[in-house]
Amino acid sequence: MTPVEVTELGSHVGSEVLIQGWLYNKRSSGKVRFVLVRDGTGLVQGVVTPDADPTAFELADSLPQESTLRLTGTVRTEPRAPGGYEISVTRIEPLHVPKAPFPIGLKEHGTGFLMDHRHLWIRMRRQTPVLRIRDGVLWAIRSFFRERGFVATESPVLVGTSVEGTTTLFPLDYFGTPAYLSQSGQLYLEATCAALGKVYWIGPVFRAEKSKTRRHLIEFWMAEGEQAFLDHVGNLALQEDLVRYVVEAVAAEHSRDLAELERDPAVLLREVGGPFPRITYHEAVALVQKAGVSMAVGDDFGAPAEDALSQHFGRPVFVERFPAVIKPFYMKRDPERPDLALCADLIAPEGYGEIIGGSQRVDTEEELLRQLREAGLPIEPYDWYLDLRRWGAVPHAGFGLGVERTVQWLAGIAHIREAIPFPRTLDRLYP
Ligand code: 4AD
Ligand code: MG
């Protein structure tokens, strides 16, 4: 018999099917045994009665959690069962029976314990929908860029220069030459965008950040876009379109996963339903201060400040034109206010923090040399990057979207560590 996946059960009502999966949970009620089986696509309940195969009945009693098995039976509609279908089991074939109890029971466990067992924890009920939503976010980003004619061009992960300041670099020894793990693929996208016009990549980036917040990872995935002949205003429009596209795709394609997480897609759709507000850095500081969060002009937004902004707007909000001194060297200055950068951060609603950082880029050699010097960076390693302003210089702009922060928001989860299969945090390199 050809195996059927749990998500396909709806088209097999009344027929006999074969399900392959793992025993998630079981219970008994009088003379009936219930086995809850997961197969990676979903969970289904099997009902074993004494008039079924006696071995099946015995196995339903004896098999421990996370036994691997094949289960045969007839599909019935059962609105009270998880997923809406039930299987009247005729046969259970065990494939692997664990010798010890599964470390993660169905009771509550501490975070440290769960993180130590992350390789097993990902099988559990609230984890699989998050990972499927993550897949949905990544696919949506790719199809958005593809529909818009952007070309995927990968940036290297081993690099010789910093992008986002020198304090969060991971140093490496590259056969005797100092090297780093990339903080962002942006500089290379600026080169490929001068070759192809519109480019993007989605890749892992690294920040040796000593932050232990629920929004920070040491290794995370960034989706970055870069476009030639794009200015600051066009950049914001592109980002807004991307975020709305991703949210709509996830709401449409992951309703089952969102429901399992008790996340209402209508809330997400409402949040991205209208235009995203745009306020200046200075307006944002005033707003944050008015909300009672202490912050001075010239400070970057901390978590409490971002939360105050997201509470005020209840939808994604762009904070534009930061003081150039608190932003990286590559941002173009506002010609009318050279102390400000032509940049914006997009703050997610509901307190999920900054999900995008972007800007128009410096496009002349003179400005870039000046800003590199002002940032205290050496010129020589950026010589190739300066070349982009020596030949075919062009106004251009781009941005980077934090994939895990976006997943965190859409899935509605408290901590970013559950938005990636194997999180790298300040105190964790295992498993
Ligand atoms: O704002 P960031 O640092 O921007 C850049 O790196 C630019 N070079 C991107 C570009 O213009 N191409 O990072 C972009 C996004 C942030 O808005 C945030 O969502 C996410 O990356 N991010 C992190 N996510 C998880 N953990 C961290 N430590 C993060 N740091 C940034
Ligand atoms: Mg940023």
How would you explain this protein's 3D organization?
The chain has 431 residues and is an alpha+beta fold. It has two domains: 6-96, OB fold (Dihydrolipoamide Acetyltransferase, E2P), CATH 2.40.50.140; 128-419, BirA Bifunctional Protein, domain 2, CATH 3.30.930.10. The protein contains 13 helices and 18 strands. It has helices spanning 54-62, 111-116, 118-121, 127-147, 186-196, 232-253, 255-260, 265-271, 281-290, 303-313, 365-374, 383-390, 403-411; strands at 16-29, 32-38, 43-48, 68-77, 85-96, 151-152, 158-159, 170-174, 177-181, 198-206, 219-228, 278-280, 317-320, 333-334, 337-341, 343-347, 354-360, 396-402. α4 packs across α6, α6 runs antiparallel to α8 and α9 (281-290) packs across α10. It is elongated. The two termini are 37 Å apart. The mean pLDDT is 97. The structure holds 4-amino-1,4-dioxobutan-2-aminium adenosine-5'-monophosphate (4AD) and magnesium ion.
- Arithmetic mean pLDDT: 97
Q: Could you give the distance between the termini?
A: 37 Å
| Uncertain spans | none
Total number of distinct structural domains: 2
Q: Which value, in Å, is the CA radius of gyration?
A: 26 Å
Helix count?
A: 13
Label the overall shape: elongated
Reported CATH architecture of the largest domain: 2-Layer Sandwich
List each distinct ligand once.
4-amino-1,4-dioxobutan-2-aminium adenosine-5'-monophosphate, magnesium ion
The CATH class name of the largest domain reads Alpha Beta
What would the CATH topology of the largest domain be?
BirA Bifunctional Protein, domain 2
Tell me what portion of residues adopts beta-strand conformation.
25-35%
The CATH superfamily of the largest domain appears as Bira Bifunctional Protein, Domain 2
* Order of strands, widest sheet: 6-10-11-18-17-16-13-12
State the helical fraction.
Answer: 25-40%
SSE class: alpha+beta
